[in-house]
Amino acid sequence: MRNEKGVSIIEVMIAMTILVIALLAMMSMFHVGIRQTSLSGNITTATQLANDKMEEIRNLPYESIDDSYYPPNKDNQNPDSVSDPDSNFPNYERYVTIQYVDSDISAISVSSAFNPESNVPPSNLLKVSVNVIWTTDTGARREHKEMTLIGG
User: Fold this and answer.
1) I need a surface site. Which of 32, 79, 81, 126 has the fewest CB within 10 A?
2) Are 146 and 51 in contact (CB under 8 A)?
């Protein structure tokens, strides 16, 4: 026999095994990448929904902010959130909470006699919180919170 150089079937099988292992590892990375891209898109949408509501509230005159968003139970220490859905994003829930705060950003006590229609707020500083909640593809509930202060 002549001395011909070639590749044996064993070498081909080893090379194919290494190739399959490498491809499987890369496929799992694609799956993780797609999942992270989806999560990033959800966070971006939630952030934008929160920012949109913050801008809307910032553009209101200070005296009229509490007309729509001040908690109906008038408990400034533990206020109720006001639901504010966006019809363009039905999978997201958005809640707005407003509290009168002092200069240390601590909620102040508001008497039960406080009447928002009197246009005499109990302080000149409002803490506005927007919380956006959504459910991921895996069924996990996520939330994004933003807070700002508005002075009157």
Assistant:
1) 32
2) yes
Q: In what order do the strands lie in the sheet with 82-83?
A: 82-83, 92-100, 125-135, 141-151
Tell me the pLDDT of the chain (152 aa) as tens digits. Answer: 566 677 788 989 999 999 999 999 888 888 888 888 888 999 999 999 999 999 999 998 887 777 666 666 667 777 778 888 888 998 999 999 888 888 787 877 765 445 556 555 566 788 899 999 999 888 889 999 999 998 87
Q: Residue 67 has which token pair? A: 């007309």
- C-alpha to C-alpha distance for 7 and 119, rounded to whole angstroms: 89
* CA-wise closest residue to 128 among 148, 108, 110: 148
How far apart are alpha carbons 145 and 127 in whole angstroms?
13
Give me 3's structure tokens.
């001395």
Q: How many CB atoms lie within 10 A of CB 133?
A: 15
